[in-house]
Design brief:
The protein has about 270 residues and is of the alpha/beta class. It contains eleven helices and nine strands. The chain has two domains: about 5-215, Alpha-Beta Complex (2-enoyl-CoA Hydratase, Chain A, domain 1), CATH 3.90.226; about 220-265, no CATH class. A six-stranded mixed sheet has the order 1-2-3-4-6-9, with helices on both faces.
């Protein structure tokens, strides 16, 4: 992935990939390169054997300003302005579905994805962190489902994923007003799990959390994520049946043997994902 423009991949902690948003638009805004590269990045990391957890952060003091309207204008302009009829409307429908693939790839990633949010997280940024598994924020960060302010209905996952995170009422308040909320309010409503005083503390916490996840057996970590996601809109009985089938298929492993051996020998386990 050396040809990336909108992202940089760092390895600061064993088994942890750090995905850094670069823009190249102002405030890491999401332009054509972002939408081209994002699904490729997360599908590759999902398959990477040396990656067990992922941290996503912005560069330059912000997470992202969201959709880069200026950079995307040549793509969107002819489809939304003028006398667009069925052919152009079909193209717009297909374009939205194509853009949705970026955050679908994050949600479908087999590795847990932790968003570390500093500065502004606007519009598409909320779409993005809604697709992540865990969200942490720096004090002073702000969040906005801004699409209503620019005459759009948020269409990249926020309105579908956010109610499961913060509830329908809070989602409607954010999406209908386009208001900013700060990190403390985001924590109060459950949008972020924890808030940290500054960016170094935020990154240290995100990397530490990812490292602790990375020390666990990777196939089991993937299974935990899969089961939780499956059960989100299922009954308890359906969820229990699913996890019973999952363990019947995948419980037996070399890592399970290693867990028992490490316990008996009173040492730390060394999981290899086999």
């Amino acid at each position: 992935m050396e040809d990336l423009v909108a992202f940089r991949i760092e390895k600061n902690v064993p088994f942890v990939a750090e995905v850094v948003l670069l823009g190249p638009g102002k405030g890491n805004a999401m332009g054509p390169q972002f939408w081209e590269e994002c699904p490729r990045v997360f599908r590759a990391l999902s398959a990477a054997e040396d990656v067990r957890a992922i941290v996503v952060r912005g560069s330059g003091g912000n997470f992202t300003y969201g959709l880069d309207l200026k950079a995307m204008a040549p793509t969107l302009g002819g489809l939304v302005f003028g006398d667009a009829l069925a052919a152009d409307r079909t193209k717009l429908y297909e374009l939205v579905q194509k853009l949705q693939e970026s955050f679908d790839a994050i949600a479908a990633c087999k590795k847990p994805v932790i968003a570390a949010v500093s500065g502004r997280c606007i519009g598409g940024g909320v779409d993005m962190i809604s697709a992540c598994d865990i969200r942490l924020a720096q004090k002073g960060a702000s969040f906005s489902v801004r699409e209503v302010k620019v005459a759009m209905v948020a269409d990249l996952g926020t309105l579908q994923r956010l109610p499961k995170i913060i509830g329908v009422g809070h989602t409607k308040m954010l999406a209908l007003t386009g208001d900013d909320i700060d990190a403390d309010r985001a924590h109060e409503i459950g949008l972020v799990e924890d808030v940290y005083d500054d960016e170094p503390e935020l990154l240290e916490a995100a990397r530490s959390l990812a490292a602790r996840i990375g020390q666990n057996p990777p196939l089991v970590v993937a299974g935990v994520k899969e089961v939780i996601d499956f059960c989100a809109d299922k009954s308890v009985a359906e969820g229990q049946r699913f996890v019973a089938l999952w363990n019947a298929a995948f419980l037996a492993s070399n890592d399970l043997k290693e867990a028992f051996a490490a316990f008996m020998e009173r040492r730390d386990p060394n999981y290899k994902g086999t």
